[in-house]
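Hi L.,

As promised, ABC-type sugar transport system, periplasmic component:
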Amino acid sequence: MERRQAAYQQMLKDNPGIKELESIGAVSSDVQGDTANKVGAVLAKYPKGKIDAIWGTWDAFSQGAYKALKENGRTEIKLYSIDISNQDLQLMREAGSPWRVSVAVDPKLIGATNVRLIANKIAGEPTPATYDFKAAAIPQALLAAQPGAVNVASLGKIIPGWGQTEDFIAPWFATLEAKNK
């Protein structure tokens, strides 16, 4: 979350036309509900036309914001987020959804890459101290254009490169795989 917040602050600095009215959100036992209540209070303070968008640095925050926007009839406010889940995809595809875009990395890919890094580390191979995954934008319009159900597992069919990277695949992985078939 800290890195996301730092990137957000840099984006604000680089785009002086964007003004942050409020900053809310805290991890709790009911993130969605607590966020919905906080966003509802913010919506009551600002009449229509005063808020252009809500940015969620985590999809649980965005789910709460979505709930508040729907419950308060404020779907003119666009919602943008980081992370993706099957629930998020369903909410983005609902009729009249304010959720425009989410940017995410395939969670399965994160796990696979972490396992590769651990295997390399155990084998004494050099590994980086940090690694930046290439995130993909998942636009509402693209989701809405899909004829059937969309879930995280099927995003690879509509988002180029989703769930794919060859990073940290060592040549000896093939030998290891062949021995364990």
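The chain has a mean pLDDT of 94.

Thanks again for sending the construct details.

K.
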